[in-house]
Amino acid sequence: MTALTLSTAALPGLRADAIVIGVAKGTASAAGGPVVVPGAEAVDKAYDGRLAGVLETLGASGAEGEVTKLPAPTGFKTPLVVAVGLGAQSEKDAAPDTEALRRAAGVAARALSGSKKAVFALPMTDAADAGAVAEGALLGAYSFDAYKNNGASDGKAGKAGKKNRKAPLAEAVLAGVPSRDKAFKAAVQRATAVAEELNRARDLVNTPPNDLDPEAFAAVAQAAAKEHGIKVQVLDEKALAKGGHGGILGVGAGSVSGPRLVKLSYTSAKAKKHLAFVGKGITYDSGGISLKPAGHNETMKCDMSGAAAVFAAVVAAARLGLAVNVTGWLALAENMPSGSATRPGDVLRMYSGKTVEVLNTDAEGRLVLADALWAASEDGPDAIVDVATLTGAMVLALGNRTFGVMANDDTFRAAVLEAAEEVGEPAWPMPLPEHLRKGMDSATADIANMGERMGGGLVAGLFLREFVGEGITWAHLDIAGPAFNEGGPFGYTPKGGTGSAVRTLIRLAEQTAAGELG
Fold it and tell me: How far apart are CA 227 and CA 197, in angstroms?
């Protein structure tokens, strides 16, 4: 991953491939042209105070995500200046917020792929700003190239392809950031841990399903747990059958790759609270017997994004040494059609003891989550948060960049939304209307896995609520929209796996450790 360094040296003397500066979109009172923001004073001075005018001549407006490149001024040891747009600025001297800085740094890092070193001279007045720039640069520089240009049998094509492919930015230098200042240093270290684990989640989401089945995912979790002092338990098919985990077994019954339930436990001697995170981990979702049509299954390797987010959050909590106990549950299965697959009309006996009539085998995520939620409840955590690419209905409701949040406690739902907002993840509160529960009544079993079509995302949330232990605070994050970006990259978000919800979970853990959540 991109290396991070801190420097207080003067910009003209720094040797690098480029200097990144920020440009805001001016207001009408500022003639509407680009406004050079703090951090670029040395560059502006070298242009005799006319940097904004030069940028405007080159077509720059300061719009969010805009990149303008120009030669560095005389006297600089860096040949290139990269001006990145921060978006509209309400007041002439208003400082950009941390999310604007995070996005700008991500855009710049991606624009500088192939470069060995870039100096980020964005406004960093405090440790939070520095952390945002660091995080944005590390996330924006991300690239998943593990399967590209491995070459012909003689290896020649692969070598040529790798030579022509631009590598991610190798090093990002944060200018004006004192390396010995404890607050700044801690913020950058936090950003590094968060970004590394989020990028690990992205790697998992992007890995083809023929290389990441439930067993392989569990092995990745085991290796990381050993590295970071996390206790791990993996239940295979035999253990799941012995324990009565009918939901996970039912979903995985059609695949030659057996299901797994992974429990990751990070504990702190200073902890006063316990959080449980539960992730949907369908390593490939064909829909099962209720087969998905062509055009709807090509990206279904991403259906384990919730488990990837939970895994990354637990490891990050351990790396940050948070004073909270965090348990992660990864409900892993592959949903395939075959002679042994669960059929529509089958009844599964879940780990909780409840029976579920399966009306649609493509509503499988709620089945594996149900078993994991009940298992998590047995530990008596202070709160449970599940994360899943659960329903297309949520995508229809909120689009591709926003995840929905449901909960059995309004105060906790508000806390989750606040955490998401703090870290820059778009989220929106969703209800759990009681009248929709009746649609899941079954004449054969305790409950059906399908209900009314309209409001399908809310129906799924109501189903999950049935498997949360009594008296336990719970929230459900449906990340079906933002988990996998099929469009072009934007901000610090790449094409493909995004790592959605990782930072929200980490922030929740931090707030709980600090005693900010009840």
Answer: 13
Closest CA to 56 of 14, 29, 23: 23
Distance between start and end Cα atoms, the chain: 36
- Among all chains, which residue has been given the structure tokens 């994004």? 305
- State the burial class of residue 298 (Cβ atoms within 10 Å of its Cβ: 0-12, 13-18, 19+): exposed
Answer whether 353's CB lies under 8 Å from 469's CB. Answer: no
Q: What are phi and psi of 95, to 5 degrees?
A: -85, 140
Per DSSP, what are the bridge partners of residue 71? 80
Q: pLDDT, tens digit, for every residue of 34-77?
A: 999 999 999 999 999 999 999 999 999 999 999 999 999 999 99
The span from the CA of 244 to the CA of 495, in Å, is 39
User: In sequence order, what are the residues at sequence separation of 6 or more whose Cβ sits closer than 8 angstroms to the Cβ of residue 155?
Assistant: none
Buried b (16+ CB within 10 A) or exposed e, 250-282: bbbbbbebbbbbbbbbbebeebebbbbbbbbbb
**Token pair for 322:** 């948070």
Query: How are beta strands 34-36 and 18-25 bridged, if at all?
Result: antiparallel
3-state helix, strand, coil in the chain (%, to 5): 40, 20, 40
Instruction: Please tell me the predicted confidence (pLDDT) of residue 304.
Output: 98
Active site residues: 292, 366
Q: What percent of the chain has pLDDT over 70?
A: 95
The reported pTM is: 0.96
Helices in 58-155 by DSSP H: which ranges?
Answer: 98-111, 127-140
| Per-residue pLDDT tens over the stretch 355-389 | 999 999 999 999 999 999 999 999 999 999 999 99
β-strand pairing of 484-485 with 496-497: antiparallel
Please tell me the least confidently modeled range out of 153-162, 166-175, 189-198, 222-231. 153-162
Residues 207 and 199: their CA atoms lie apart, in Å, by 12
Residue whose token pair is 């979790």: 221
Q: What is the pLDDT of residues 214-262, one digit of tens each?
A: 999 999 999 999 999 999 999 999 999 999 999 999 999 999 999 999 9
